[in-house]
Amino acid sequence: AQSVSQHNHHVILSEAASLELGCNYSYGGTVNLFWYVQYPGQHLQLLLKYFSGDPLVKGIKGFEAEFIKSKFSFNLRKPSVQWSDTAEYFCAVNGKGGATNKLIFGTGTLLAVQP
Amino acid sequence: DAGVIQSPRHEVTEMGQEVTLRCKPISGHDYLFWYRQTMMRGLELLIYFNNNVPIDDSGMPEDRFSAKMPNASFSTLKIQPSEPRDSAVYFCATGKGTGGSSEAFFGQGTRLTVV
């Protein structure tokens, strides 16, 4: 079955702390991977994406994620978080090619950054 | 481009009433997704279309839910009759599926409250 698991449901950090959010997926075939961010009261916005090539992907606002194929993982990292990073973060996956392009999301991780 | 446009932004209705949510995709996008977001269940994929054709509606919770895409620039999600447990934020997202790789662009969502 296609699924995305995010192990951390709620993370609380102080400003300047480092962040790593876990994401594991189950999806037959070659995949594309995404991290989306949802700021309070807003819609989901793309943070970064992996389609192919370098497994270390850099996104906006200093975020990066590493695709480790052998572990079916795509963890999100940021070396130093800011209060403005308080948001909910969603990992997502879809498949390459074919007629289907089902985009599956994880349950999300709520990040609260304390000033 | 104005992005994905959803209407209404907020809807409050009484149990038993019919509710219709609307979505205008980004021009040129051939995939359209309907998601439901709740605190308990996170972000659930209800149904998605490719070139106006429903591809997978396995996420539609009950027969009370139906979705249509009569043309490339309009989709509706209808709930009839509505129930309090349908209260959620409903997001429409669209993407361009060229080569099977597509990130999704989200609308602002419709916050539905059924009383």
Descriptive notes:
The complex is a heterodimer of chains A (115) and B (115). Chain A has no helices and 12 strands. Chain A is mainly β and 115 residues long. In chain A, the strands form 3 sheets. In chain A, strands 2, 5, 6, 10, 11 and 12 form a 6-stranded mixed β-sheet that branches. In chain A, strands 3-9-8-7 form a 4-stranded antiparallel β-sheet, with no helix packed on it. In chain A, β10 (87-95) and β11 (104-105) form a beta hairpin. The model of chain A has no long low-confidence stretch (mean pLDDT 91). In chain B, the strands form 2 sheets. In chain B, strands 2, 4, 5, 6, 9, 10 and 11 form a 7-stranded mixed β-sheet that branches. The mean pLDDT of chain B is 92. Chain A binds chain B through residues 32, 34, 36, 42-46, 49, 51, 90, 92, 94-108, and chain B through 31, 33, 35, 42-43, 45, 48, 50, 55-56, 91, 93, 95, 97, 99-109.
Overview features:
heterodimer; A: 115 residues; mainly beta; six-stranded mixed sheet; four-stranded antiparallel sheet; B: 115 residues; seven-stranded mixed sheet; 0% helix
Q: How many beta-strand elements of chain B? A: 11
Please report the number of helical segments of chain B: 0
- Amount of helix of chain B: under 10%
Give the largest chain-chain interface (CB within 8 Å): A-B, 27 and 25 residues
Average of per-residue pLDDT values of chain A:
91
Sheet with the most strands, sense and barrel status of chain B: 7 strands, mixed
Give the number of DSSP strands of chain A: 12
Termini Cα gap of chain B: 36 Å
Percent helix of chain A, as a range, is under 10%
> What structural class do the secondary elements of chain A suggest?
mainly beta
Unreliable spans of chain A are none
Computed over alpha carbons, the radius of gyration of chain A is: 14 Å
Low-confidence stretches of chain B: none
Q: Quick one: overall form of chain A?
A: globular
CA-to-CA gap between the ends of chain A? 41 Å
Shape of chain B: globular
Q: Give the overall pLDDT of chain B as a whole number.
A: 92
- Counting DSSP H or I runs of 4 or more residues, the number of helices of chain A is 0
β-sheet strand percentage of chain A: over 45%
Q: Secondary-structure element sequence of chain A?
A: EEEEEEEEEEEE
Radius of gyration of chain B: 13 Å
